[in-house]
Amino acid sequence: MYKIFTLIFLSFSIGSLAQINPENVEIIRDRYGVPHIYAPTDEGVAYGLAWAHSEDDFQTIQSTLLAAKGMLGLHLGKDGAAADYVSQLLRCKQIAKEQYHTLSDDYKKVLRGYVSGINAYAKSYPEKVLVEGSFPVTKDEVLAAYVLSLSVMSGAGETISKLVNGEVSSIFENSGKGSNAFAFARKKTTDGNVYLNVNSHQPLDGPSSWYEAHLISDEGWNMMGGLFPGGATIFHGTNEYLGWAHTVNYPDKIDVFQLEMHPKEQLKYKFDDEYKMLDQKEVKLSVQILFGIILKVKKTLYWSEYGPVIKNKKGYFAFDLAVLHDVRAPDQWYQMNKATDFESWKKAVEMVAIPGFNFVYADREDNIYYLGNAKLPIRNPGYDWSGVLPGNTGETLQEDFHPLEDLPQVLNPESGYVFNTNNSAFSCTEGEDNVRVDDYDPTMGYREFENNRSLRFYELMNEYEQLSWDDFLRVKYDKTLPDSLAYPVNLNALFKLDSNKHKRYSKIINILQTWDYSSGIHNVGAAQFMILYRHLVEEYKDEYDGTPYQLTEEQALKAVKFTYKYLMKHYKKLDVTLGEYQWLVRGDYKMPVAGVLDVITAMDASPYKNGRVRAKQGESYIMLVKYPKNGLPVIETVNCYGASNQPDSPHYADQMLLFVNQKRKPMTLDLDKVRAEAEAIYHPLKLD
Predict the structure, then answer these.
(1) Contact at 8 Å (CB) between 156 and 164?
(2) Pick from 617, 640, 658: which residue ends a domain?
(3) Residue 172 CB-half CA count within 13 A
(4) 242: DSSP letter
(5) Burial level of 87, CB count in 10 A (0-12/13-18/19+)?
């Protein structure tokens, strides 16, 4: 039956692909394997992007699409089934199908081209398909993957996990992993160029890791930057005229409601003066276990007026988030890609379809701009939206959303710069140039707060009236914490320990107390601090209530003892450098890498081997841009590994050395130059 269906689909697919002749699509690989994709139409470019990205990382793209289809459990077992559950609980496919009509006609063509390209690749290389029957994919499924991914990035995963476990307070917290973005106007630079730093701190691998591409068409698309697996446009980067960077932000993007259930009749909940029945649906999650055996696990899913519902020991709880009301985020990114000046870019941003993320913008016309973007409902001020809300009244039901003018934003401040390091929207530039928290609707949940990176950025800005390009690089690659630390654990007790009272541990105490707060690979103190700090976070994570946990002297000494034992066990010495402890690893390639949590060049890590750790999230894809008054922008980029996720590719790890040495490769938006310097130029395979 499956083979018959496949044949029917392919006969249809070939006809639908007739609009895109693969021979008109060029995939131009530069010396680092980065794809520069040209086609006469935007639809053709999207086809080429799907093909090129599949060549480099088809396995990760499939994981994203399998989750949207509810089939990831067939590939990853229990972990994949959890993603399938979330996808079905959120009704991602249904929402994508119902809201597809809201997309612009131009973006529908782009989506169609991407779907055609990914299906063509799967047909051409059936041996690379991870799960039988998972192709072809449809436009609704690719759109559903956006809904799922953006829901998770808006905090749905944490919310669902906590509700399942019976936790109903502090639903979503700042993860602290970090991103950076800053822009400098001409008045702030010594060479008269506008500077932009695009520097999101994402996982180095997986479905939200960065892929670099350059998209060019005769319809005005000429955009370079980063996207995630399954993306059909650039998410942030630059075109000939302008560019922007994203960082994660933390307004109140999710609302949780406790339903008032009927005292006698099951699955009925009170809503104003009546009781309504929960929508109920039973699904079967497919889970592959040992030897290819597939288990079917039944799950009952509920839906209410407020959105998806989870039952736990404390009752029934619904939650809602903007992505479930608006699927146009990828369309907005596409419109931003095509913008030619600040006015057209801002018109795209006025869609307010992207559910979160700060925007830091710069252009060749000397505009710089910060936006604390979020799609937030207009909430009834009579309720406390920071906690769990009553789910028995239409007064807490969300219908309308704040327009762009309601959101915190700063355009062309007198200071000459804007920035964000996941810190407060009300601290994006200098002093009085900032907007005030009191001027914004408190139900939106924007807060005033700083982190180590924002404090350090301000310290650095105090050194410069103007910045040269070398100064800009120094700020971007700064590896030092601020004078006053802003971690969730208050470490004063550690720095007050008297080493004379603890002779056995005096050396490790002295290393920690005399550490210069820097995190280069040759630094002694950074590794010791991260071993101790990660231990503290694990020990006291349940004590964190949004304010720094106050460490006692006894707890500080206990952490010092743990650090001492760890170092002696794994290294037989205490004066270990960061480069001995923390590595960047891909396959057989291993290199020491700088950075610790919450420095500007931030790096988080996970256990690797023999007491070492491997970098897992932080500095990843970096784009630095200079906008002159005339001509194309000057672009430098680097990715943490390489352009390809295929171990047999020469571009699997060929950017690692650049990355760890804090260097970059020159890039260009000039198509003629790209072609002249290309390593390879070819077309996607043509379907017979």
Answers:
(1) no
(2) 617
(3) 26
(4) E
(5) buried
